[in-house]
Specification:
This protein is an alpha/beta fold. 44% of the residues lie in helices and 20% in strands. The chain is globular and about 60 Å long. It starts with a strand and ends with a helix. Its main location: cytoplasm.
Length: 358
């Protein structure tokens, strides 16, 4: 078993990574939760539930009140309507301040379940049980949110989980597209803060099929450790945590303009990373070997160019709605070199010019 500790101003918690953790959920709750648990609500989705909910419930047999609710799988579920339904479900089940919400699923489930936990009765405890590679990133750090028609993750909170239980065996059911979506966040961590990790990825990961259990455990623990270090230094994104948004300003805009769910988060982020690398070379005296990066990610099936059908004007407008925008300037996460990222305020005409070129 691998463990990564996360320290925040709010509290500290641990990410546990191992095969078969889902069968022992109750044991880990008893070990990691300081206060008694009055009831549990497991929130999952229509894809994960049929695969793993029964296993998780078997591990919770020692608890008297265990409720479940399933949301439709996909980004569309991060909506006000689904949020209201989950709050109603929590009220109907009689959840109180000593209850615990378990998020069993990928990033969407973790985001909306975490936001329900953050806002229900002004905040109750929750546990992250990620089932995707993408969720290795989103399950750590306490960012929870739902989407608005005008922007992704615009309504949310910071609410740290009590513990993260990552049963890596559940990654075996992922599609290639889901692998791509999650791996984008892994390589991002290397690009912004850890060149040796990035170079190790390029050397070690040639295809998703070649990732065995040991390699997966090493990949995840290193990537989560980078995220945990950043969160420990800057829990609420006033400084260094903003660097984790490399590729996300354009990536979120692509998701929004194309319609949530039509392109996965990670696939959009890779396009955003390539854009940020080009902008970095344009603004700084640096060479990032973009052709090498593009060749590597294309070998996994990533697209690296903005889809032609997306209006560049609409993308710019979406980027200007980003939470990182200040006084009309778009705050971009750029690279001075591999492993060294920075925040740069960039004029919109410079960004629009580069958008039209790609």
């Amino acid at each position: 078993m691998k463990q990564v500790h996360v320290n925040t101003n709010d509290h500290s918690y641990t990410v546990y990574l191992d095969n078969g953790l889902r069968f022992e959920t109750g044991k880990w709750l008893q070990k990691c939760l300081e206060q008694p648990v009055s009831s549990i609500l497991v929130i999952t989705d229509s894809t994960v539930g049929p695969l793993y909910l029964k296993d998780v419930l078997s591990g919770l047999s020692g608890f008297e009140q265990v409720h479940t609710v399933t949301i439709p799988s996909g980004e569309q579920s991060k909506s006000f309507a689904e949020y209201e339904r989950l709050i109603t479900e929590a009220l109907t089940c009689g959840l109180d301040r000593k209850s615990v919400i378990i998020a069993l699923g990928g990033g969407v489930v973790g985001d909306i379940a975490g936001f329900v936990a953050a806002s229900y009765m002004r905040g109750i405890r929750f546990v992250q049980m990620p089932t995707t590679l993408l969720a290795h990133d989103s399950s750590v750090g306490g960012k929870v949110a739902i989407n608005h028609a005008l922007g992704k993750n615009m309504v949310g909170a910071f609410h740290q989980p009590e513990v993260v239980l990552y049963d890596t065996a559940m990654l075996g059911s992922l599609s290639t597209q889901e692998w791509r979506s999650g791996f984008a966040e892994v390589l991002k961590h290397g690009l912004i803060l850890n060149r040796p990790f990035y170079e190790w990825l390029q050397t070690s990961i040639k295809s998703f099929d070649s990732i065995d259990n040991d390699l997966m455990a090493e990949l995840l623990s290193q990537s989560i450790a980078i995220k945990a270090k950043v969160v420990s230094e800057d829990e609420q994104e006033h400084g260094v945590r903003a660097l984790l948004n490399l590729g996300h300003t354009l990536g979120h805009a692509i998701e929004s303009v194309s319609g949530y769910g039509r392109i996965t988060h990670g696939e959009a982020v890779v396009i955003g990373i390539v854009f940020a690398m080009r902008l970095s070379e344009q603004l700084y005296d640096t060479h990032l070997d973009i052709p090498s990066f593009i060749a590597w990610v294309k070998s996994f099936g990533y697209e690296t160019e903005i889809p032609n059908e997306l209006s560049r004007q609409e993308l710019l407008l979406a980027m200007k709605k980003d939470k990182k925008t200040e006084a009309g300037m778009i705050r971009m996460i750029l690279l001075k070199e591999i492993g060294v990222a920075c925040v740069e305020k960039v004029e919109t005409d410079i960004i629009f010019s580069l958008l039209k070129e790609n």
